Amino acid sequence: MRSVLTWLHKPLQATLLSLCALTWVSAFAAPSVGQGAPDFTLTNTAGAKVSLSSFRGKHVVLEWNNPGCPYVRKHYDSGNMQALQKEITAKNVVWLVVNSTSSDHPDHLKPADYAQWMAQHKAAPSAVLLDDDGKAGRAYGARTTPHMYIVDPKGSLIYAGGIDDIPNARAADAAKATNHVRVAVNEALAGRPLSKPVTAPYGCSVKYKSAV
Q1: Is the bond leading into 106 cis (omega within 30 degrees of zero)?
Q2: Mean pLDDT across the stretch 132-152?
C-alpha cells in the first residue's frame, strides 16, 4: 500500500513544484503583449554590454536559451534554430539569445564555453547575452527554454510564447511544426496584425538564481 501511495504522490509533487516555480516567476511584473518591452543591458559572451533599447527602430527576437536543456538541443541539433536565426536576421531583424541560468547551476557555462557551443552549432544570432542574476528573464516572465518574444521597432512587445506547435524534445519533429516565430515575424514585417500574438511556451524551466 505504501508503495502505491508513494507512486501516486509523485505526480502531485511534480505538479506542485511546477506550480510553485510558475508562481515565483509570475510574481514579477511580466509585460503583456501590447505593452512596452522591458529594457535591459546585459553582457555578451565577449564581455561587451548590449542594451535592448539600442536596437530601437528594428524588430527584435528574444530567445531564452540553455544548452543543457533537451528542448533547446532539439532545435539546435536539428539545425532548426540556426536556420531560423539566419533567415530572420537576413530580413534586418535583430536576434538576441538570452541565458538566465544561474551561475551556481550545473547547466551554467562560462562565457568562452558558451561562445564555443554556439560556434560549434553554427548559430547565427545578433548577440548571445548572459543574464546570470535572472533580472531580465524575470522582467519578461520567461518560464522555459526556449521561450520566445518579439519586440517591434517602437519597443512594444508583440509576441510571447513558444517557438512552434509541437511541444516535445524530438529533433525530427522540428521540421514538421508550424513555427510561430517565423509566422509572427513575417506578419509583423508585412504590417499585418499577428494571427497568434500569444502562444504556449514549452521546454525546460529556466534555471533562475534562487530567490533571496
Answers
A1: no
A2: 97
The dihedral built from the CA positions of residue 6, 9, 10 and 13, taken in this order, carries a sign that is negative
∠ CA 192-59-70 to the nearest 5 degrees? Answer: 105
Q: Residue 90 half-sphere exposure, CB side, CA atoms within 13 Å? A: 7
**Residues 56, 153 contacting (CB under 8 angstroms):** yes
3-state secondary structure 154-191: CCEEEEEECCECCCCCCHHHHHHCCEHHHHHHHHHHCC
Q: How far apart are CA 160 and CA 201, in angstroms?
A: 8
Q: How many residues does the chain have?
A: 212
> Any idea which residue has 527602430 for its cell?
57
pTM, two decimal places? 0.86
Quote the Cα angle for 41-42-43, to 5°. 135
Reference 80, options 59, 93, 63, 94; nearest CA is: 63
SS3 19: helix
Q: Based on the number of CB atoms within 10 Å of its own CB, is 196 exposed (0-12), middle (13-18) or buried (19 or more)?
A: middle
Three-class DSSP category at 88: helix
For residue 176, what is its C-alpha cell? 514538421
What is the pLDDT, as a whole number, of residue 17? 35
Q: What is the mean pLDDT of residues 151-164?
A: 98
CB 160 within 8 A of CB 197: yes
Tell me whether strands 94-99 and 127-130 are parallel, antiparallel or unpaired: parallel
Q: Estimate to the nearest angstrom the gap between the alpha carbon of 80 and the chain centroid.
A: 15
